[in-house]
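Notes from hallway chat w/ T.B., transcribed later so I don't forget. T.B. wanted the structure written out for a chain they're using in a teaching module, and asked if we could keep both sequence and structure tokens in one place. Agreed to drop them here.
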Amino acid sequence: MSKIDKDELEGFTKSCHELILSQQTFSLSTASANGVPDISYTPFVRDRTGLFYIFVSELASHTANLLNNPRASIMIIRPESESPNLFARERAVFCCNVKEIRPNAEIYTTRLNMLQDKFGEVVSLLRSLSDFHLFELQPQSGRYVVGFGRAFTIDVKDGSLSHI
């Protein structure tokens, strides 16, 4: 494995941030109260501090899972059509602690407004439905993979990378 110099590392850090910014949804892995794994996807927004927010329905199994087991793994991955090698797709994966943001919380409205700004009027409709929950996902650890032998740990505090 070759040594990564500072300039290369800065380039990979920029690429990681660009990947996250370029996607509107992520894969969401949760587990039921009994530990049964479940994977799905959901639209998201990310605030300036690096926290992710999702607004999901009780009709989706991941919502009950998050309410009962507030841990999740998320994956933001380069689309297949943009990937030269499907065995080494560019991706960022985060293990997260999750908390529900209740409607009476100070940030509830601002985060829903962020979602509405990004996804449009559909969020306005979803806000009127009583079965939707707003969740905050706080990354605890992260990994960025950009190809074979190109894996990095993401510092969740500042977004910097270190080569694995």
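Follow-up for T.B.: The beta strands are 25-31, 37-43, 45-46, 52-57, 71-77, 91-101, 132-147, 150-154, 161-163. Might be a good example for the class.
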